[in-house]
Design goal:
Blueprint: E1 10-19, E2 22-32, E3 37-41, H1 48-55, E4 64-71, E5 74-77, H2 81-84, E6 92-95, H3 99-102, H4 109-120, H5 129-137, H6 141-146, H7 162-175, E7 180-184, H8 192-208, E8 212-217, H9 220-226, E9 229-234, E10 237-243, H10 244-249, H11 254-261
Parallel strand pairs: 3-8, 3-9, 6-7, 7-8
Antiparallel strand pairs: 1-2, 1-4, 4-5, 9-10
Bound molecules: adenosine-5'-triphosphate.
Length: 270
């Protein structure tokens, strides 16, 4: 059946990022399959955030980027910001590690939701104007319920805890109906028990809405609970990639074996 496998939704080809000659991302090739949850795991400084930012075409002028990205069969040059402009950015939704980056402290959350719709669905062909207006007024209740968020509209960000702000950003991202939801350390603002529960809800909501999830985390145990596949990043290199069970039960690279050995596993993968 191998020959019949569908092409990947996104293909990262020969991505290299350097800073003053120092290699931060070293020739990474990575496929993301439609509908999967892929976790990129690595320690601090491994290059996780740099990988995500490059993949989204977010330009940092200090860094030199080379490589390309194929999305739904179309090629985009990552080294050339102008050419990357043709990439359908609304297909990706990014939730940053720090929720405060994504929220305006001076605006009620309802206003911020309206901006999400205006930006992600400009002159939308999918929607008649009336439908779009309705969406701007009504946050999809199903997503609020799925993520256990209520009464979000009339409050300001500071009236929510950091964990709630992070969940709200994830809800905004899901409601914008991206093809890929990108989560940077999605549970860093939450305590471990709440984190696992919240991530379970996010992955479930993404699956129900047919959204592919790419997350980066330093926590292999958390990745193991939710990811279909795990990619291991170390010093900017993709050193191992496999389905979650293979990574946990028969890791090939000594770095991965060490990660697995030194994790305290919960019940799911003891
Ligand atoms: N703009 C930049 N200029 C110079 N070096 C950078 C820049 N951005 C990232 N780096 C370096 O690239 C390496 C990877 O950083 P990155 O933030 O991607 O790692 P990370 O895996 O996300 O780490 P963490 O888990 O601590 O957030 C680090 O050595 C970092 O210092």
């Amino acid at each position: 059946m191998k020959g019949n496998a569908p092409p990947p939704l996104l293909r990262l080809i020969d991505l290299t990022v350097t800073f003053n000659g120092q290699v931060l991302i070293d020739n990474i090739n990575l496929n993301i399959k439609s509908g999967e949850t892929l976790a990129v795991v690595g320690g601090s400084g491994a290059g996780k955030t740099t990988l995500l930012r490059s993949l989204m075409g977010l330009k940092n002028h200090d860094l030199m980027t080379s490589g390309s990205l194929a999305f739904e069969g179309n090629m985009h040059d990552l080294s050339d910001h102008q050419k990357f402009g043709s990439f359908p950015k609304h297909s990706l939704a990014y939730v940053p590690q720090s929720p405060s980056i994504g929220l305006d402290p001076l605006k009620k959350l309802k206003w911020q939701w309206q901006q999400v719709i205006r930006v992600t669905r400009p002159k939308d062909r999918e929607f008649h104007t009336n439908e779009r207006r309705k969406l701007e007024v009504d946050f999809p209740k199903s997503i609020l319920t799925q993520l256990k968020l209520k009464e979000f509209g009339e409050k300001y960000p500071h009236q929510w805890s950091r964990g709630m702000q992070q969940r709200l950003l994830i809800a905004f991202a899901l409601a914008a109906k991206p093809k890929i939801l990108i989560l940077d350390e999605p549970t860093s603002a939450l305590d471990p028990i709440v984190a696992a529960r919240a991530l379970l809800e996010v992955v479930k909501a993404a699956r129900e809405n047919n959204i592919t999830v790419l997350m980066v985390t330093h926590d292999l145990a958390l990745a193991a609970q939710f990811a279909d596949r795990i990619a291991v990043l170390s010093s900017g290199k993709l050193i191992e990639l496999g389905v979650t069970d293979q990574i946990l039960n028969s890791p090939i690279h000594p770095y991965t074996a060490n990660l697995v050995k030194h994790r305290h596993w919960g019940n799911s993968h003891a």
